[in-house]
Specification:
- The protein has two domains: 23-124, 2-Layer Sandwich (Phosphorylase Kinase, domain 1); 134-182, no CATH class.
- β2 (69-73) and β3 (78-83) form a beta hairpin.
- It is an alpha+beta fold.
- It has helices at residues 23-39, 45-56, 86-101, 104-107, 134-149, 187-190; strands at 61-65, 69-73, 78-83, 113-117, 120-124, 162-164, 170-172.
- The structure holds adenosine-5'-triphosphate and magnesium ion (MG).
- Magnesium ion is lined by residues 66, 160-161, 174.
C-alpha cells in the first residue's frame, strides 16, 4: 500500500486484522473497497455513503459521515471509519501513518488510532459537540500552531474535524489530509 500524502516512496504494512471486527466484517470491507470505484461517477457523497452502508450491511449505528468516509459506532468506546471515495482511502491510510509517526508532543492532540487496514480505521470515540464559539476557535488556532511547530501541516483543520477527549481537551478526529511531507501532492491544491 502506498502512502500518497506523506511519502510516496514509503511502504508500510497494513495489518488488516482486527480484534474488534469479525473476520466477516473485515472481508465485507475488503469486498466493498474492491468494488467501490464502480459506483462513484456522478454520485453525491450522500449517495456513495448509502451505497457503502447497503453493501456493508453492518449492525452498527452510523454516527456520522463526511464527503469521504462513513463512521460507525462500535459501542465499545471506539468508532469505525470506512472509505467510500479515493480520498477516504488515502485519509484512512494517512491517519494511521501520522498517528504512528508523528512527534510525541503532538500525538496527544490526535484522536487515538486503535486498528486499521485497507479502507478502514478504528479510532477512539470522542465528544463531537463543538460549539462555534470564539473560545473554541482560539483553541483551534493554538492547536494549528502546535502542529506547525512539530512539522505537521494541518490541512483541513476546522471545528467540524475536532472533538473533546475524556479530559475535555480538544483533539483532531479528521486528520486524513494532514501532512509531514513538504513535497506532498495535497499541498499543490493550496499553494
Ligand atoms: N473519533 C470520532 N468520534 C466520534 N465521532 C466521530 C469520530 N470521527 C468521526 N466522527 C463523526 O463522523 C463524521 C465524519 O468523520 P470524518 O470527518 O473523519 O469523515 P470525512 O469523510 O473524512 O470528512 P470530510 O468530509 O471532512 O473529508 C464527523 O463529522 C463526526 O461526526
Ligand atoms: Mg471531516
Amino acid at each position: 500500500m502506498l502512502w500518497p500524502i506523506n511519502n510516496s516512496k514509503e511502504r508500510i504494512h497494513q495489518p488488516n486484522e482486527s480484534v474488534m471486527l469479525s473476520r466477516q466484517e473485515v472481508k465485507a470491507i475488503e469486498s466493498w473497497i474492491s468494488q467501490m470505484g464502480k459506483f462513484q461517477f456522478y454520485k453525491t457523497a450522500g449517495q456513495n455513503m448509502s451505497t457503502a452502508r447497503r453493501t456493508l450491511k453492518f449492525k452498527y449505528k452510523i454516527i456520522g459521515h463526511g464527503f469521504n468516509r462513513v463512521v460507525y459506532d462500535l459501542n465499545n468506546g471506539y468508532i469505525l471509519k470506512v472509505a467510500f471515495s479515493e480520498v477516504g482511502l488515502i485519509s484512512n491510510a494517512n491517519e494511521a501513518y501520522i498517528y504512528n509517526n508523528c512527534n510525541e508532543k503532538v500525538k496527544k492532540y490526535l484522536c487515538p488510532v486503535k486498528e486499521y487496514g485497507t479502507g478502514w480505521i478504528i479510532m477512539k470515540k470522542v465528544d463531537t459537540n463543538v460549539p462555534f464559539a470564539i473560545k473554541e476557535y482560539t483553541k483551534l488556532f493554538k492547536l494549528e500552531l502546535n502542529f506547525l511547530w512539530c512539522g505537521i501541516i494541518p490541512i483541513d483543520l476546522r471545528l467540524d474535524n475536532v472533538g473533546y477527549n475524556g479530559n475535555d481537551e480538544m483533539v483532531v478526529i479528521d486528520y486524513g489530509l494532514f501532512t509531514m511531507d513538504l513535497k506532498s501532492p495535497v499541498l499543490r491544491w493550496f499553494v
